[in-house]
Amino acid sequence: VSFQDLRAETPLGDLWHHDFWGSKLSSNTSHKSYRPLTVLTFRINYLFAGGFYPVGFHVINIILHCTISVLMVDVFSILLGGLQFSNKGRRLNLAPKTSLLAALLFAVHPVHTECVAGIVGRADLLCALFFLLSFLGYCKAFRENKEGHNFSMFWVLVSVILGAIAMLCKEQGITILGLNAVFDALVINKLNVLELIQKLLHKDKSLENAGLLRKGLLFRITLLMSGGASILYIRWRIMGTGPPAFTEVDNPASFADSLFVRAINYNYYYSLNAWLLLCPWWLCFDWSMGCIPLIKSVSDWRIIALVALWFCLIGLICQALCSEDSHKRRILTLGLGFLIIPFLPASNLFFRVGFVIAERVIYLPSIGYCVLFTYGFSLLSKQAKKKKILAVAVLGILLINVMRCAFRSSQWRSEEQLFRSALSVCPLNAKVHYNVGKNLADKGNQSAAIKYYREAVRLNPKYVHAMNNLGNILKERNELQEAEELLSLAVQIQPDFAAAWMNLGIVQNSLRRFEAAEQSYWTAIKHRKKYPDCYYNLGRLYADLNRHIDALNAWRNATVLKPEHSLAWNNMIILLDNTGNLAQAEAVGREALELIPNDHSLMFSLANVLGKSQKYKESEALFLKAIKANPNAASYHGNLAVLYHRWGNLDLAKKHYEVSLKLDPMAPGTKENYNLLRRKLEQLQKKGS
User: Which domain of life is it from (predicted)?
Assistant: First the structure.
């Protein structure tokens, strides 16, 4: 989520033209994930919290998951017990125990941890909330349906609108319209799918008797499908430039040349998603970048997983179609519907997706899993002689899930724990090693970070971000040759990688290859027009080459693009000061302090200029203010001492020289100035005596 979209100064209308990550939808680089209502809730969170304080964001996620889990009792009572109303129009719960068990299983399923503990999981939670409200709203359309002939058009339209809202929270939301149609056919119209297929195959014209045209089913399905098509068309128009562009590392199977390889691997991914629902022990925040190597041959033992998946699915589908028990047919079909239909947008069947496996996308499909699991348990309990053992087993599963949720949530509490937890699950994932390395680098542990960055590059030799970060660390350690090689390779692989071009320029500048450095900086700016840090570094290059006007222009560009760029302001003041342009330096310093009033380094630089201009009182005030903000800066005390020395306040000069030398005994020039002052004080004492 873009921080900029959460700030009050960003117009609310911009949310409807940006993707989930803050890029314009019309941009070719946009992710195309259009979730304006989710971003709006983040903005409200930000407004009430008064900034980026995570507690409020997490609390809302927890409340949403709890609300969804409570709604699940109603949803599961319909899926497992059917839809029936009392004479007063109140819906009856015909499966209170099994619906409660299914809701508990859903509430504590460890695979949901990512959605609840990860703030961006809000999209899945909001989508699920309106998804369920749409389903329950559709059920309300049949409250007055004594004989099954009447329905409320109002509630059908409300259901479509809630489906549209769900889609504005996350794309999966649109699938509720298909599920409502399935529910209408199976539960409201009691349609026998196998019987209908047989009649169609035999060209039987008595389809009305099969329930297809009874009770307004075709009309309602047409309404649902028309609503869905309209919503999808509007969304497609808003997207502007077609589907997003993903890279091979995001979803390698979708880039395979062979249709066979693509099909085998897609099915393997489905089996892994199913396994995460059955046994959510190996959880990972990211499954891309080589985490799951491609299956390229039928001799690969992993083929067993997809064979097992389809064996189970075909068995369930046969039971759902062929069972003589209509209650069993209905539950199995609805369970499979809720398992499969919400997963379709993530299946790669209709369009390429930007991930291999994502735990968040099985938040909704887990509803179907809970239906099938609970129904299986109820069948077992009817046949089991020792029901207590079965009850203890189910309670054990719930307890294990609670413990797993608590443990997984603790891993989400910090980046370090989250990234390291992924190393054991996906040791071949270059992004995991990259993230561990970045976390270590941020903490100042460069040696360890280098190890993980090197491993990330080894696992993925085209991982330009890892090369860039590794090159940066090597640059700071003065290993300039290797840094240049890495950064040159990064821009060769990705020629529009502006940050790598800038860092390459910094390395080339350090190697005194000034022409190449200038070219690299301008290439970076060509690919990223608004790049204040690059203008700042370009200014430093020009200053080194004594091209003072070019340096000032570059730094001015940096401050125009980023008014709070303290380093650029400081360098302008210092350069103007050093070249004797005191009036201009003073003007720039005052302009900078108006924009960044609490920056002590700017106070210090301007105080130096004012001191040279003999504006001692104002200079003193700024020095003291800077020292108050940063009392341990030896240079601040040393330069204030020089000011007092010039001004003739020798006692105060002596005091601040001594403080400066105490903080930094090797401070350049301070010791000499202090000795000069002491000799002057001694001479004054001799004259006085």
Answer: Eukaryota
Question: Please, which residues bridge with residue 18 across strands?
Answer: 24
C-alpha 307: how far from chain center: 34
CB-based burial of residue 324 (10 Å sphere; 0-12 exposed, 13-18 middle, 19+ buried)?
Answer: exposed
625 close to 603: Cβ distance less than 8 angstroms: yes
Q: Estimate the crossing angle of helix 634-647 against helix 616-629, to 10 degrees.
A: 160
Report in angstroms the alpha-carbon separations of 81 from 92, 94, 135. 9, 5, 15
* Cβ–Cβ < 8 Å for 538, 554: yes
Q: Say what the pLDDT of residue 152 is.
A: 84
Q: Which of 9, 111, 33, 36 is nearest to 355 (CA)?
A: 33
Please, are residues 336 and 327 in contact by the beta-carbon 8 Å criterion? no
Q: What angle do CA 368, 370, 372 make, to 5 degrees?
A: 70
Residues 6+ apart with CB under 8 A from 193: 186, 320, 321, 329, 333
Q: What angle do CA 356, 358, 362 make, to 5 degrees?
A: 125
**Dihedral sign for Cα atoms in the order 268, 274, 279, 281:** positive
3-state SS assignment for residue 312: helix
Collapsing DSSP to helix, strand or coil, 18 comes out as strand
Helices assigned H by DSSP within 142-258:
153-169, 175-183, 193-201, 217-239
DSSP string, 326-353: HHHHHHHHHHHHHHHGGGGGGSSSSS--
| pLDDT at residue 146 in the model | 45
**Cα-flanking dihedrals φ and ψ of residue 413, to 5°?**
-75, -25
Residues in the chain: 689
Residue at 488: amino acid letter: S
* Cβ neighbours of residue 6 closer than 8 Å, sequence gap 6 or more: 39, 42, 43, 45, 46, 52
Token digits for 601? Answer: 């380094």
Cβ–Cβ < 8 Å for 212, 191: yes
Residue 17 is encoded by which pair of tokens?
């033209």
Give the residues across from 24 on adjacent strands: 18
Please provide residue 254's backbone torsions phi and psi, each rounded to the nearest 5 degrees.
-70, -15
Enumerate residues 6+ apart whose C-beta is below 8 A from 495: 527
- Indicate the SS3 state at residue 91: strand
Structure confidence at residue 341 (pLDDT): 95
Residues 6+ apart with CB under 8 A from 99: 73, 74, 76, 77, 80, 81, 93
For residues 614 and 637, give the distance between their C-alpha atoms in angstroms, rounded to a whole number: 18
Instruction: Say how many CA atoms lie within 13 Å of 193 toward its Cβ.
Output: 19
Contact yes or no for 475/483 (Cβ under 8 A): yes
- Pick out the chain residues at pLDDT < 70: 1-3, 28-29, 144-149, 203-215, 240-243, 688-689
Q: Which two tokens stand for residue 402?
A: 């609670």
Alpha carbons 681 and 649: distance in angstroms, whole number: 11
Reduce the DSSP state of residue 85 to 3 states and report it.
strand
Q: What pLDDT was estimated at residue 676? A: 87
